[in-house]
Amino acid sequence: MTADTANDSAMSEGLLELCEIIRSELSAHLVSFDVAFGELNLRVKREGLIDVLRFLHDDSRMHFISIIDICGVDYPAREERFDVVYHLLSPRQNERVRISVATDEKTPIPSATQVYIGADWFEREAYDMYGILFTGHPDLRRLLTDYGFDGHPMRKDFPLTGYAEVRYDDEKKRVVYEPVSLRQEFRNFDYESPWEGTDYVLPGDEKTSR
Q1: Domain coordinates of the chain in residue numbers?
Q2: Spatial CB neighbours of 26, under 8 Å, sequence gap ≥ 6
Q3: What is the Cα–Cα distance from 162 to 160, expressed in whole angstroms?
């Protein structure tokens, strides 16, 4: 475990006390520990995540009862390419903590819904956007994309055009999925070089002399 002791002098008394408690109680579950921009940052082992969340939630000295957000971060070059980041708030302590856990495309992370019921849709979004898996989630399915959507659009290797396009087919009277095609009529701009100008009169130019 590493600790950024250089920041200790800049910490409030309350934050310093929380840091000492976390160092003593959760060291077995921590990969790293520091304080940045006035917030606790905990990098946690995957198998110890729920124990950490439960302690932060239940312990009267912590009382991090509010889950603000869960999000994914993609590092394609890493073996464990994803970080799952949890942001918690303690109204009693008026402090925040950021927890991150690393995983890959196939290894699931324990669902935080067993501690924070509000984690439900956050984890569904992380699954939808990144393909991150969560074990024990009550309803892990896509949240923002369509049911037939292919891939996970927030991954850094996801193509900008996607894999398929959706349109309503008048003949079939239903929505159809087709491979992406860049239609020429949307790329055929009706002007010449911006340095040479157009060969027709733009609105308003008729008032000036050429």
Answers
A1: 5-145
A2: 42, 48, 51, 52, 55
A3: 6
- Whether the CB-CB separation of 101 and 109 falls below 8 Å is answered with yes
132 is written with which tokens? 């991150």
Structure tokens at 140: 């892990």
Residue with the larger pLDDT of the pair 78 and 179? 78
**65-86 pLDDT tens trace:** 999 999 999 999 999 999 999 9
At residue 88's C-alpha, the angle toward residues 70 and 128, to 5°, is: 5
**Paired tokens of 78:** 């890493």
Kindly report the average pLDDT of the chain as a whole number: 85
E-strand spans in 59-140?
66-74, 82-90, 95-103, 109-110, 134-135
Strands 134-135 and 109-110 come out as parallel
Q: Partners of 120 in the beta sheet?
A: none
Extract the tokens encoding 13: 């008394």
What is the pTM assigned to this prediction? 0.76
CATH code matching the domain that covers 5-145, chosen among 3.40.50.970, 3.40.50.150, 3.30.460.80, 3.40.366.10: 3.30.460.80
Structure tokens at 14: 């309350």
Question: CA–CA separation, 192 vs 186, rounded Å?
Answer: 16
Secondary structure (3-state) at 76 = coil
Local structure of residue 5 (DSSP, 8 states): G
